[in-house]
Amino acid sequence: MASQTSTTPTNATPSATGVTAGAGAPGVLGTATASEQHVSSTWPLSPHYYYNSSVVNPTNDLSKNPLLNRIGLEPVKRILLITASASFWGFMLGGVIGSRQSGMQYLAENAHRLPKNMEGWYFYHKRKNYRMMWGAFQKGVVFSSKTGAMVGLFEVLEASMDFYRGGADLFNSMMAGVASGAFFAAINKLPRQSSKHTLMLGAGYGLVSGGLQDLSSYLKGTPVWYLPQSLKERSLALKLPEPEE
Questions:
Q1: Half-sphere exposure at residue 96, Cβ-oriented, CA atoms within 13 angstroms
Q2: Where are its TM segments located (predicted)?
Q3: Over the stretch 7-40, which tens digit does the pLDDT of each residue have?
Q4: Could you tell me if 95 and 147 are in contact, meaning their C-beta atoms sit under 8 angstroms apart?
Q5: Would you give the distance in Å from CA 209 to the centre of its chain?
Q6: What is the pLDDT of residues 63-82, one digit of tens each?
Q7: Is the distance from CB of 74 to CB of 68 less than 8 angstroms?
Q8: Are 235 and 223 in contact, with CB atoms under 8 Å apart?
Q9: Which residues of 91-119 are buried (b: 16+ CB within 10 A; e: fewer)?
Q10: pLDDT at 218
Q11: DSSP alpha helices (H): ranges in the chain?
């Protein structure tokens, strides 16, 4: 009981605190080092990314690095979720377009042989609905594949740039948008003017999306290197409760 209720000197360093507590009370080693959580630490990544250890405990596992997160998700989860969402909405958009195109095509193919009675009109609209559903499915699969592939490529490039530079920011998103636009222009063999327009759209999309994500992360307390230092320090002013004596 005497060893468990002993207090640590206030002038001891965190490392010394851990050694003293471990020598005197080996059973309470995990709780005796609570003051170490107030020591600032640096992630072993880019030199301008810092994170307070009172917010998150540093680790060498880069997949757990919060500086690589966007919209509150880890890179792998974010890529899968956004790609699946883009594929779904691409399927919905393609379904609408394919349904309309199939309906118009059916009307054009049968304009010279319109039904003349009630039963004929019933089967006419029945076959038309089948054609429209099948056309919606075909066009939906095509749009879903293309949209999912492009959005997935953008997300993979963005996450790769985040990993390489040591953190997520709008410049990584902008570069990923430009690279995705260049890939799209090359695959579709667009002319020079159209390729230039595609690159500008990709850069604009990356800049806007990355800027909004940086703003959201900064307001939540995650440091953003290009923002003022004083505001960054104030955003990280999160402290754990002092250990009870």
A1: 5
A2: 79-97, 170-187
A3: 444 444 444 444 344 444 344 444 444 434 433 3
A4: no
A5: 10
A6: 567 778 888 888 899 999 99
A7: yes
A8: yes
A9: beebbebbbeebbeebeeeeeeeeeeeee
A10: 78
A11: 14-24, 29-32, 75-109, 118-165, 170-188, 192-219, 229-235
**Which pair of tokens denotes residue 51?**
């994170």
Q: How far apart are the first and last CA of the chain?
A: 14
pTM of the model: 0.67
- CA-CA distance, 28 to 38, in Å (whole number)? 19
| 3-class DSSP state of 73 | strand
| CA gap 201, 216 in Å, rounded | 23
Q: What letter represents residue 53's amino acid?
A: S
Give the model's pLDDT for residue 214: 86
- What count of residues does the chain have? 245
**Can you read off the two tokens belonging to residue 48?**
């301008």
Q: Which single residue is written with the structure tokens 């394919």? A: 98
Q: How far apart are CA 174 and CA 49, in angstroms?
A: 19
Concatenate the DSSP letters of all residues of 212-236 into one string: HHHHHHHHTT---TTS-HHHHHHHT
Name the packing angle between helices 118-165 and 170-188 (round to 10°). 130
State pLDDT tens for residues 4-15: 444 444 444 444
